[in-house]
Design goal:
Layout (H helix, E strand, L loop, with lengths): L2 H7 L5 H9 L3 E3 L2 E2 L13 E3 L2 E2 L8 E6 L27 E2 L8 E7 L2 H8 L7 E8 L4 H9 L1 E4 L2 E3 L2 E8 L2 E8 L6 H8 L4 E9 L2 E2 L8 E3 L2 H6 L4
Parallel strand pairs: 7-13
Antiparallel strand pairs: 1-2, 1-3, 3-4, 5-7, 5-15, 6-7, 8-12, 8-13, 9-10, 11-12, 13-14
Helix pairs in contact: 1-2
Length: 233
């Protein structure tokens, strides 16, 4: 088994992300740093990641967390800030699927299934993610068309979103958007370029999965049927 796959099966990260982590000198094989993601792990090899011995698990698990605001989407934080792992208790090593920035709340998946992690986060699969944004004012028809075509958001990147719904009351709108790209802070950068003030942002859907009535800060394990539905977008 390749070393990157070994890390993925141990719940460290997707195989693609594991490539990067291995090349950052985080992984030891039999007491020596290994920088080669393609290293062929043999029976008896002792693999450590960040000082912790890894053991691949055949048990695949996926949790859905309703991430609160001001919580970091990372496994650990050197500054002592609260992370999503403070909310999820598991004997298995889990990693977040993608990221929600500190101020964004809502649906976040965590899993030890490296293959699923890779599928959901790879840009070519265009897995839909739905968000609910509260904004000042309203997105007019011209800007809705810009959103669907793509709008320059800086750093040689274009943001693109599908408008699913918009409800306006007392000068504020609740906007539901669907993304298929997943660029860093994409929705925030889109509204900044449109000069629209974004008041709050929450992810409410991932592929065919909906946040539903899961309370903020709570999590639950997905059923096998729900896991399968993540592939059936």
């Amino acid at each position: 088994m390749r070393l990157n796959k070994y890390l993925a099966k141990s719940g460290v990260a997707s195989r693609r992300k594991s490539d990067e982590l291995i090349q950052m000198a985080t992984t030891e094989v039999n007491g020596k740093i290994c920088l080669d993601p393609a290293y062929d792990v043999r029976p008896g090899d002792k693999i450590f990641f960040d000082g912790r011995r890894l053991t691949p698990s055949n048990e695949k698990i996926v949790y859905m967390l309703n991430k609160p605001e001001k919580v970091i989407t990372t496994v650990s934080d050197t500054h002592g800030r609260r992370t999503v792992m403070d909310y999820v208790k598991s004997k298995l090593r889990l990693s977040p699927v993608g990221r929600l920035d500190k101020q964004t709340k809502g649906l976040l998946l965590l899993t030890n299934d490296g293959d699923l992690h890779h599928y959901l986060t790879h840009p070519s699969n265009r897995v839909p993610k739905d968000y609910e944004a509260i904004i000042e004012g309203r997105v007019d028809p011209v800007n809705i068309r810009k959103l669907s075509r793509g709008i320059y958001i800086g750093d040689k990147e274009y943001g693109r979103a599908e408008m699913l719904d918009q409800e306006t009351e007392k000068g504020r709108s609740k906007v539901k958007l669907r993304l298929r790209q997943g660029k860093k802070r994409e929705i925030r950068r889109i509204f900044f370029r449109l000069k629209i003030k974004l008041l709050s942002l929450k992810r409410i859907g991932y592929s065919n999965l909906k946040l539903g009535n899961l309370s903020e800060g709570e999590y639950r394990q997905l059923t096998s049927k729900e896991i399968k539905s993540l592939y059936d977008q």
